[in-house]
Write a structure and sequence with these properties.
Layout lengths: L25 E2 L2 E9 L10 E2 L16 E3 L4 E4 L2 E6 L4 E3 L3 E3 L1 E3 L1 E3 L9 E8 L6 E9 L10 E6 L10 E5 L31 E7 L3 E6 L2 E7 L7 H4 L5 E9 L15 E13 L3
Parallel strand pairs: 4-9
Antiparallel strand pairs: 1-2, 2-19, 3-10, 5-6, 6-19, 7-8, 10-18, 11-15, 11-19, 12-13, 12-18, 13-14, 15-16, 16-17
GO molecular function, one term: hydrolase activity, hydrolyzing O-glycosyl compounds
Family: Belongs to the glycosyl hydrolase 16 family.
Pfam families: Glyco_hydro_16
């Protein structure tokens, strides 16, 4: 979500809905232990930092996006988190003039974890210029993207309406434009499609010391490991605890801007966010 030029892994998927992973789910390596969850029966500000009056002028928005992030765009309704994007202009001394309002929240001050399963049950908005995401950044990280960025879910609306993206960004320097063999590691993922806007789906990443795997509705659709990196395999898989981010951008370099077909308001619904550690055998 932070930037596009260092896209390391991207993949998409088609499949039917599968049962979610319960709190005591098992896999081949052992049980998952729940370490963080929010079922969104209320808006828990002890868990989430909700950004307010946040825009390009105060380094909260990237990629030529058009929105300002306001706390008023984030709410809870009927057991779901709701992040609403609308086309009501906003002007403030810090944010400047913005054409759209939306929301962003993170756990940077309350929760971060190294390795595990990170999942959310989400219903996506639709339309040209919509760019919701569930992603993670390193707590105490160096300049982006030296310590990595993990995108559990990115979606870019009308441009790719049936495509879910799972990404890892990484480089051994700060410059977003580094594509040389000495500084950039590229891995190519598969591409499939999935009906995304009609219902909720479960988006997840499983992160180990040696690999990252992406899932939708319990089905793995992409995986990378350190051996796939051309340059510095030991650095490919992130090594710092990451915190969680939920946001809904409008416009930008990747999805393009809203057009005459775009309708507002649009809403991103999140039923829950859950994080697990793998228990010892």
């Amino acid at each position: 979500m932070r930037g596009l030029l260092l896209l390391l892994a991207a993949a998409t998927l088609v499949m039917g809905t599968q049962p979610m992973v319960p709190a005591n789910a098992t896999n081949a390596k052992g049980k998952w232990t729940l370490t963080f969850n929010d079922e969104f029966n209320s808006l828990d500000r002890a868990k989430w930092r909700i950004l307010n009056d946040c825009s390009t002028t105060n380094n909260c928005i990237y990629n030529d996006e058009l929105q300002v992030y306001l706390a008023s765009q984030v709410s809870v309704s009927k057991g779901n988190l709701v992040i609403e994007a609308n086309n009501v202009p906003y002007v403030s001394p810090s944010a400047g003039a913005r054409r759209y309002r939306s929301g962003r929240m993170d756990t940077s001050g309350s929760f971060a974890q190294l390795h595990g399963r990170f999942e959310a049950r989400i219903k996506l908005p639709s339309g040209q210029g919509m760019w919701p995401a569930f992603w993670m950044m390193p707590r105490g990280g160096r300049c982006w993207p030296m310590d990595g960025e993990i995108d559990v879910l990115e979606y870019i609306g009308k441009r790719m309406p049936h495509t879910v993206h799972g990404n890892l960004h990484f480089a051994n320097a700060c410059n977003r434009d580094l594509h040389s063999a000495a500084n950039y590691c590229g891995v190519t993922g598969g591409a499939k499609t999935l009906a995304l806007n009609d219902d909720f789906h479960i988006y997840a990443v499983e992160w180990t010391p040696t690999s990252l795997a992406w899932f939708v509705d319990g089905v793995q659709y992409f995986k990378i490991d350190a051996t796939q990196c051309r340059t510095k395999p030991a650095q490919l898989i992130p090594t710092k605890p990451f915190y969680l981010i939920l946001n809904f951008a409008v416009g930008g370099d990747w999805p393009g801007n809203p057009d005459a077909t775009s309708t507002f308001p649009q809403r991103l619904y999140v039923d829950y966010v859950r994080v697990y550690k793998q228990s010892a055998l």
